[in-house]
Specification:
Two copies of one chain form a homodimer.
Chain A: H1 8-23, H2 30-43, H3 48-51, E1 52-54, H4 58-67, E2 71-74, H5 77-82, H6 85-89, E3 95-97, H7 102-111, H8 115-123, E4 129-134, H9 138-149, E5 157-160, H10 168-176, E6 182-185, H11 192-204
Parallel strand pairs in A: 2-3, 2-4, 4-5, 5-6
Antiparallel strand pairs in A: 1-6
Helix pairs in contact in A: 1-2, 2-11, 7-8, 8-9, 9-10
Family (chains A, B): Belongs to the CobH/CbiC family.
GO biological process, one term (chains A, B): cobalamin biosynthetic process
InterPro entries (chains A, B): Cbl_synth_CobH/CbiC (IPR003722), CobH/CbiC_sf (IPR036588)
């Protein structure tokens, strides 16, 4: 193992240089490139360069919200674990995941729906929960769409990156049909680590 | 959104059916297939069918350790968050990640090495930490290799799936050269979510 490998900062710099090199002719506006490269850094999967779609002003909208102390809601503990909470905290925000809450489990059971859906209902009760990261449950994204359409939520960014074979792609199409700032990974790919990487890329741009 | 989508159990069954179908001629022994399909379920990336390598008796070795109450050590909070801790707890084990420990940060700084390396040294101090999941840091895997070679660790399973462009592939090759039960994803791909999926597949087989 080379000595340089013991310095995480250098490993990351070298990784991003390799990613940029291998992307070759595929270039992006600076901010968009930072997000896409961080997702590739997290997955080693260059397909994300083609499937990651960022709506106009999504990054700006998210950064303004974070500057204002907005909280971030995730649909998994993994996405919450992956987001740089120390960086977010500097602006006053925190990361919240309601999936393991007792009242969420109870309501989901009573109503025969997913905890992910109930967790979105709970999330929109606090209007300072302004950024949503859905890395797992298409039902969370469909539910958030409903809440947005009913005027119960007006997010500053929805990171819609559920991974999977049943409903994931469709839930992202549904998100893209809405008039909200969004970032999606079209098709089946995505996941909690991808969602966290997108948020971290946005946070690191704010330094 | 179809009503079936509100039942997570049915979504998962349908997802695995799609994965099996799309794998086509690629079939695996039952236990190995369960691990590979769960990784694909987590990533929507069929390349894992080709790069996931499971050493002989690795699954059996891990299950015996878990039955005996072994703990699982991860190199990220994300992998820890992703592992089904309730299932593991039934056997008496818990998931441990030392990356955020104050003493680990302190020692890493003093010695100019990564926290991931120090966290492995700390992990092997308790001989009941018998399963290791490395989803992020090649340095953790290289360090674990050293500890194994020096006789300071004798794991019942090492899940070596660091993702990345600098050292990740090499660290997995190093793991494969050892005489320990291992599961790796050859090359650059992997990650905390992949590591957690592998452990969960092993846990779900034990039901």
């Amino acid at each position: 193992m080379g000595d340089y490998m013991k310095v995480p900062h250098q490993i990351e710099e070298r990784s991003f240089a390799i990613i940029t090199e291998e992307l070759g002719d595929k270039t992006f506006p600076e901010d968009i490139g930072k997000i896409i490269k961080r997702v590739i850094h997290t997955t080693a999967d260059f397909e994300y360069a083609d499937i990651t779609i960022i709506s106009p002003r999504a990054i700006e909208s998210a950064q303004r919200a974070i500057q204002g102390g907005a909280h971030i809601v995730t649909d998994t503990q993994m996405a919450k674990a992956g987001i740089n909470k120390a960086k977010l905290k500097k602006f006053g925000g925190e990361v919240r995941c309601f999936m393991a809450d007792e009242d969420v489990a109870q309501k989901a059971k009573e109503r025969g729906i997913t905890r992910a859906m109930v967790s979105m209902e709970k999330a929109v009760e606090d209007s300072n929960n302004r950024i949503f990261v859905i890395g797992n449950a298409p039902t969370a994204l469909f539910e958030l769409k409903r809440l947005i359409e009913e005027g119960k939520a007006k997010p500053d960014l929805v990171v819609g990156v559920p991974v999977g074979f049943v409903g994931a792609a469709e839930s992202k199409e549904a998100l893209e049909s809405l008039d909200v700032p969004y970032i999606v990974t079209r098709g089946r790919k995505g996941g909690s680590a991808v969602g966290a990487a997108i948020i971290n890329a946005i946070l690191y741009m704010m330094e």
